[in-house]
Amino acid sequence: MESFDIVDAALLEEQFFARDTVTVARELLGHVLVSMAGGMITAGRIVETEAYLGADDLGSHAATKGITKRNRVMYGPPGRAYVYFTYGNHHMLNVVTESEGVAGAVLIRAVEPMVNTAVMAERRGKETSLTDGPGKLAQAFGIDLTDNGTVLGEGRLAIYAGRASDFSIGRSGRIGLSFGHELPLRFYVNGNVHVSKAKTGPALSHGRGKGRTN
User: Fold this and answer.
1) Over 80: is that where the pLDDT of 127 sits?
2) Average pLDDT, the chain
3) Does position 211 have pLDDT exceeding 60, yes or no?
4) Which segment of 42-46, 130-134, 195-199 scores lowest on mean pLDDT?
């Protein structure tokens, strides 16, 4: 397991996120997500992401074709956390992209644990499969709705530069969507064991309408 020194790391600031969502989703791979929830530092290297676009993306929360109470954080400013709760079970962490007023966000789907795995295991209630899925990593990192809309680096969450080694990037359709799953907007580190095991393709019906489920 790699170590990570937050003191020597460079924070990814707003200009990193104020770009095309697909570019940000791809380039987030290898950087390090840090949480200070509960006064404990947890950290992990990002190994899987998904891009979510504007009103024309049927898998996106912005597919309402307007700003709502739920999706307004997606419209900027960039470099904020967009956290939502789904199906009464899981929080999901996204980071806001694009210029202010343009909907865009990247879902952090999986990370490779680096710092305080014991804390992650305690929060998850298990010692394996800690962060190989968006709901799992949110639980392991103590992420909840109090983080929604917070500026990365100013609240409990931050992302630091950390692409220390070369890796190849895979690309596929997105996971767990009723619509928009076929778009090749999921990016992941090839061969990394912490990438989620879920399959791409249409979501199983939950009777709660179309769009994003994870």
Assistant:
1) yes
2) 91
3) no
4) 195-199
Q: Amino acid identity of 20?
A: D
pTM given for the model: 0.92
Name the residue with tokens 């969450």. Answer: 157
Whether residue 18 lies inside any domain: the answer is yes
| pLDDT tens per residue across span 73-83 | 999 899 999 99
Half-sphere exposure in the Cβ direction for 166 (13 Å, CA): 0
Cα separation, 118 vs 116, whole angstroms:
5
Determine contact, residues 169/29, Cβ cutoff 8 Å: yes
DSSP 89-112: TEEEEEEE-SSTTS--EEEEEEEE
If one compares 209 and 40, the residue with the highest pLDDT of the two is 40
Report the distance separating Cα 57 and Cα 113, nearest Å. 31
For residue 59, the enclosing domain spans 14-189
Domain CATH for 155 = 3.10.300.10
Q: Which residues are CB-neighbours of 122 under 8 A, at least 6 positions away?
A: none
CA pair distance 15, 191, nearest whole angstrom: 30
Among candidates 38, 5, 1, 6, which has minimal Cα distance to 141? 38
Nearest to 59 by CA among 191, 143, 179: 179
- Look at residue 209 and tell me if it is in a domain: no
